[in-house]
Amino acid sequence: MIMRKELKRYSSIGNRAGILLLCRKVLTGNMEDLSSIGASCAFINGVNLNFKCGIIAFEEIKLISVADNKCQAKDILYSDEDENLFIAKLCRFCMNALIDMDLINTEYLKYNEVKDVFQIPMYAFSMECSVYRNLLITFGALIPDGTLFTINEYFESDFSKHVSYKHKISQELLLAQLEEKRIIGEKGEEFVISYEKKRCPFTLQQQSKIKHISVIDASAGFDILSLNDEISQTKRYIEVKTYSGNVHFYWSSNEIEAAKLRADKYFLYLVDYYQIEKDNYTPIIIQNPYFNVRNLSIWDIRPSSFLISTSCSPDQLKEIIKPIQHQGFPYTLDYDEPYMMVADSPFETFKWTDVSQEIMHAFGNNGTILIGGYKSKKQLAWILETGIYNIRLGRRAGSVLGREKCIEEAENLILYDIYNPKRFQVYNINSHCEKKKADMIALKYPNKHPGSLYMTFAITRNAALETYMDRNIISNLLANLKSHKKGMPLFIEP
Fold it and tell me: Which one of 3.30.390, 3.40.50, 2.60.40, 3.10.590 gives the CATH number of domain 340-493?
């Protein structure tokens, strides 16, 4: 949803009294003259109201309709008989409108078990909806809590309804996408069958041996059985992967095993869906992909899921886990804790003259930026929850002792996934302070053995700057810094 440009210039309609005054004037059910209302709202003691902003904001979420300098309420009418009930209706209408317009990313909504509340980070709200966000804060529907907003319990059900509905829509969309992928995959396989019949001067008898296996046996581990050439009669086992955009594919464990078993007889055909109608199009053909995909660094290989199974019967499993369930300790992944937190690594410093021009254009070349990586979801979750990024202090290797200038002058943080630098977020550095071991433990720092002293940076998301940055900017930066050690935080100074 793209909002009107003039609304983006404002951050607030006004204070509580100002917003209620506007509601009292325009949410009447009658056709109201905007000029008269604007004049009557001016210069009232105790009232802070940006009249123009309020009218635009109300119109944008269809609370009122405006035509010929007149307005009329559409769904909610002001009632002073029960002002609190009206405020609740207004907040609910506003919340629902923002969720419907995708100005709130409800995927970030989480339950805080300790506080027994639902919370959502500030960056889940689009910068375009700051007027509405501040209205919800003014009336207590959103309660600021550090870098998070707590959802007033009165409105929890509204959020849950919308999230549930969006999930339902997402499931329907997913099914549609899966069907589209199936159709695309079939067209890719049909193309390869046709391509194979033309690839060599096969006889009609040889062409008849080119078979579409996957339509009969989806578990075979390959899609098409062909011949290597017209002379040798050697079988060619072909797995077809049809893609659009950048070259990518999903490879099942069954397909990988089939490729491993057949080695040089197994071929991966990568077919660009948008090229198959073109004359003389040739797909990408990879022989022995088990070796050539797994051992070439050009491929980014990441597991998307794990199959967990057991040969135990349900009754056996119940008996096995029964004593475990009563031991009273939580189950967590066994992280290698000393190496989990990338921020505990030594850091590096570079000058603006050492880096590529594209990052200079993004940030300018007169400020210090900190670039730090995260290695695990656990580390990222801690940073996002606390709004803190940390580096070492003290006499340990990798500390910033004696390097105070870069800390004092750091203005921005780029936080990136060290395994996939295309995933990054941009933050403003608001302040910094030292924290001791006890402070970090109190903050639930995800390291069993934190050091004695850290420098911490208080950060807030800068989504606006992030939006306009090329997703390869960090990859390019790190590639150009030949002396950089993977995962180390680094400062770039003027």
Answer: 3.10.590
